Amino acid sequence: MKVGILGGGQLAQMLAQAGDSLDMDFAFVAPEKDACAAPFGQHFMYPYLDPKAEQKLADWSDVVTYEFESIPVPLVQALEQKVSVHPSSEALILASDRLNEKTMFNQEGIETAKFATVDSLDDLVAAVKQVGLPAILKTRRDGYDGKGQVVLRDESELAVAWESLSPVACILESMVNFEREVSIVASRNVSGDIAFYPLAENYHREGILRLSLSLQNDPKQQEAEGIIRKVMEKVEYVGTMAVELFDLGDKFAANELSPRVHNSGHWSMDGAEASQFKNHLLAIAGMPLGDTSIKNATAMINLIGDIPDKGIVEQIPGAVLYDYGKEPRAGRKVGHINLVANGDNDKNFLDNACKLLELVGQGELIDSVNKSSFYK
User: Fold this and answer.
1) Alpha carbons 95 and 320: distance in angstroms, whole number
2) 285: helix, coil or strand?
3) Predicted confidence (pLDDT) per residue in 97-146, tens digit
4) d(Cα 25, Cα 93) in Å, to the nearest integer?
5) 268-307 burial by CB neighbour count: b if 16+ within 10 A, else e?
6) Contact between 270 and 320 (Cβ < 8 Å)
7) Cα separation of 8 and 30, whole Å?
8) Does the pLDDT of residue 343 top 80, yes or no?
């Protein structure tokens, strides 16, 4: 099967790597000359809205997917007229605009932060009265990893905040007092079968995910599954999806959804029977889904900016380093480490996780790890 992917970053790369055992070939549309997925298939180096990009991918592919939600919707809609595309443009429209996303969650009975649309400074002033402070002003589209957002704590900050993001459409969201951040990842195939991955507990710094811990037998697993099932079935979703959740203690509030394989699901490459990448490919190919159960407890640590000494990483039992082959740059995701328990006890596993966090300059997360839900 020929799988066309819109995007050529690390998610596209890992999808292609997962396809090695599935008799699949890959092609990537990506405007970047140095797209890190390019060595794993054909690289159609065109801007996304270049008509040649659409035609090349449609002519070559049996099925098309995408690796991130900033892909132009008109391109996906045009491809849908020529070839099977999963997830659909409907899912992309929903996930690529925070207003659409939050509105859908509420319509489905899923709680979110309070929110209000903001298209001008006057709108922002009115939104603060409605939502309250502290709050976060975010662009409705394209913001990720802490980009395109400003935290507001005082009304004196409104003009500067709006100036920093205008003139694009924005949304104001109230700050949420949560006990922990988790995500639920699931895959749904063409037949409507859904396979759910165990919850991951997530830790962020500067808006970037730094650490995910897979959670076995979490008491709120079924509640999270119910939330992502509602979203998937609403849009007849096909592929892997993630929903990020705030645990408020007595219930979840949804933060964001991602219509693609997700950073917090990278642990599944070593910790699950079938990874999120393999199941995404099986889903879009119309095949039965693989087993999502945990083989061993697994932690995923993002590598931001540069890659640590591989020899030192390999000395830590159960550590597997993934280098995306990207040029090192401050704030850039260049790889990740999966740490697998391999039958080790909980304390040794988390001690090794803490060693890795120190190694990659994330030592400030150690206290959080030692208090994590992993122990509960």
Assistant:
1) 31
2) coil
3) 999 999 999 999 999 999 999 999 999 999 999 999 999 999 998 866 66
4) 28
5) bbbbbebbbbbbbbbbbbeeebbebebebbbbbbbbbeeb
6) yes
7) 5
8) no
Residue 316 is encoded by which pair of tokens? 């830590």
The first and second tokens of residue 197, run together, are 């991955």
Tell me which residue of 341, 336, 234, 239 sits closest to 286, measured CA to CA: 239
Give the lowest-confidence range in 171-185, 203-217, 229-243, 262-276: 203-217
Residue entry with tokens 């929110």: 115
Are the C-beta atoms of 36 and 9 separated by less than 8 Å? yes
Q: Is the pTM of this model over 0.90?
A: yes
**What would the 3-class secondary structure string for 48-110 be?**
CCCHHHHHHHHHHCCEEEECCCCCCHHHHHHHHCCCEECCCHHHHHHHCCHHHHHHHHHHCCC
Q: Identity (one letter) of the amino acid at 63?
A: V
Amino acid at 13: Q
Judged against a pLDDT cut of 70, whether residue 233 lies above it is answered with yes
Residue 65: name the closest of 130, 3, 149, 134 by CA: 3
Question: Which residues have C-beta within 8 Å of that of residue 248, sequence separation ≥ 6?
Answer: 111, 176, 177, 178, 179
Residues across the chain: 376
Q: What average pLDDT does the chain have?
A: 94
- Whether the Cβ atoms of residue 3 and residue 19 lie closer than 8 Å to each other: yes
